[in-house]
Design a protein that fits this description.
Among the domains are: 6-158; 218-349, no CATH class. It is 86% helix and 0% strand. The protein has helices at 6-26, 35-54, 60-74, 78-114, 120-134, 138-176, 182-196, 200-205, 207-232, 238-252, 256-287, 298-312, 316-349, 352-413, 419-459, 461-485. Helix 1 (6-26) packs antiparallel against helix 2. It is elongated. The N and C termini lie far apart (110 Å).
Amino acid sequence: MKHINPRRIIVFGMFILLILVVTDAVSLENHSITKTEAENLVYKLEKNVSYLKSAGFTTIRIDDGLDDMRYRLASGDYDYVYATYFDLTSLIEELLYLDMLINKTSILIEEAEKRELDLGDTLLEYNAGVSEFQNNNFEASKTRLENSYNSVVEKLEGKSAGILEQYSLIMEQAANNSIATQSINTTLLSLRRAQKENDFATIFLMANEIDMINASINMLIEIKQEILALQIAGYSTKRMDDIYFELEHLVNSKDYTNLFSRYKETVRLIDTVYKLDQDINDTRIRIQNPELQGIDFSESEYYLNLSVFEFKSENYEQSENYLKQANDIFHETERKHLFASIVSKAKHKLSPLEFLKKNWWKLLIILPILLLSYKITRYYIMLWLLRLRIDKLQKEHKAIIELTKKLQLDYFKHKLVDKSTYTQQYSEFEIRRSNIEEELPYLESELEQESNKLEEIKHSLPFMELFISYVQKKGDKNAAAKKKAN
């Protein structure tokens, strides 16, 4: 709750009383007043002056006029008392107006100084106006104060123009994409009210919220365009439509944390749709490959059809599971068939012992190559996984630093979060940052070690090439000798 200034309560009460007094006085306007009526006017004016003084106002001119009224009352000049009463009442109204103008200008000056605006001449004009006010020189004070007020308003309007322009662009973008959210309308009403009342503190405070709304609208537009692309490509989008309405609800409720999380999940799901469709087609092509005719892939086809059914029903997660089963069964069936084919051919041509005698040199070539290929592949995969992990931790570390800075700004500068929330979130960020900083050096060291091992294997490749060449020549000589002997 805002702090209530006691002086303002007194001034407000006095202002109401002043209206009642003026109302009473107007009723006397068309006839000369009696002594009792003149005394009543003096009494009411004295009461108003008492209120003003208790509120801390300087009332030099009003005091002089009141003394003159008392003198004229004593001398029986009641009509003069009546006329002077109206003059002094107008003077009090002027005093109250100027006091209100001083307060409003002071608030605006404070806001302008926060924005580091140049107020040199404006401050001089304002201070001069306050000084004239304190000396009861209301005419000069009014001119200076109104000039300073208008000057500060003009400077703040220039500073806030970017915020209002940004919001206008957001509204235009939302309208062009048929997006109408409650949060946009609510923020618009708040902005218009603040602009009408020259409440620049509220306008600047809403800058962060406008940034969040802008990001939210861009997310909605992106998802909406992706859904349209899916529809054009012939995909069913009922599930995506439901997700879009959920995102709109999160925008309306200004639940930006869950919105950003749900948006990322939706983007991944859309990518899954395209990839899964391509994988289903690839699997179908492999099963129908003419070169594999005669192999029974019926079980694999069964799971492939289940995957297609779930895909069309937009149960993409289950569709992925069935497709994996179809591929696993396909590869296992193909492997068994290949092995059986090799064994069958071997039985018709050579015994195992004859096969080894004839192809020993080929085995000497193949086995080292397979072993070396396995090692190299293993190291490449390990290095890839390590780099992926390091990159992910580095990005997370950077994100935590940015989130910590934003949290500190929201707490210390913008006062958007309370102390307990700040303490809890800051502690969580620090714990995670510390864990990352401990894990990163270990992973980088492991990456360097594995890279060195891979380099050692690469250095052995020339020796392997010489060995293979030697064995191959040896085998060729043996084959030629056998052929000559036959």
